[in-house]
Amino acid sequence: MPAATIRPLSYVSPLTHANAGLRKVMLAAGGFGDIRFELAILGAFAGVMLLLSVLSMRRQAYTA
To answer: Is 14:45 a contact under the CB 8 Å cutoff?
Structure first.
């Protein structure tokens, strides 16, 4: 796959934002304020995954 096709998909991956945050902190000596955007994206991803898992567990509980 060409890079132009994969690049937009990488912005959805939480690893991209975790990597960007770690780079800012470790290489650029950034602080908490510098990685607010990355933390917000990771928190939103975690919230969506938690919501999906709760909904999945509820559906399994009622069908079992």
So the answer is: yes
Q: How many domains does the chain have?
A: 1
> What is the CA 63 to chain-centroid distance, rounded?
30
CA gap 24, 47 in Å, rounded: 23
Task: Using pLDDT thresholds of 50, 70 and 90, give the confidence band for residue 64.
Answer: low
Helices (H), 1-64: 3-10, 14-26, 36-63
pLDDT in tens, 31-53: 889 999 999 999 999 999 999 99
Range(s) of the domain holding residue 39? 3-63
Q: Which two tokens stand for residue 20?
A: 């960007």
